[in-house]
Amino acid sequence: QVQLVESGGGLVQAGGSLRLSCAASGSIFSINTMGWYRQAPGKQREVVAVITSGGSTNYGDSVKGRFTISRDNAKNTVYLQMNSLKPEDTGVYYCNAEGKRSIWRSFDSWGQGTQVTVSS
User: How far apart are the C-alpha atoms of 7 and 10, rounded to whole Å?
Assistant: First the structure.
């Protein structure tokens, strides 16, 4: 199995910053895409940002220019730097990673989620 452990959530005032981290561990042969998703109360989970093993990135429209995703392939870790936070960024942030456990077996794993609350 592949486990993802997130950290870095918390309470911050609007305009502030937070940095989330997510470390993958377990039976990992390779990781292709890592990403962050979020879910606000009463809403569907949405993509925040994703990054490939080669460093290509994509962002949700609402966070472009404010959030930056990065990863350390040697540590199987992905980061999300969140700046200029807004109350509408509030939600549970989930880490996702997909890749291979071996040449023959793939994985698609989720973290347990970390709460981000932005006060106005």
Answer: 9
Tokens 């292709």 label which residue?
32
pLDDT tens-digit readout, 14-73: 999 999 999 999 999 999 999 999 999 899 999 999 999 999 999 999 999 999 999 999
Closest C-alpha among 17, 13, 21, 25 to residue 76: 25
Tokens of 6: 């997130």
Q: SS3 string of 19-51?
A: EEEEEEEECCCEEEEEEEEEECCCCCCEEEEEE
Q: Please, which residues have CB within 8 angstroms of residue 119's CB and are 6 or more apart in sequence?
A: 11, 12, 13, 14, 87
Structure token pair of residue 114: 């970390």
Model pLDDT, residue 57: 98
User: How would residue 81 be classed by pLDDT, with cut points 50, 70 and 90?
Assistant: very high
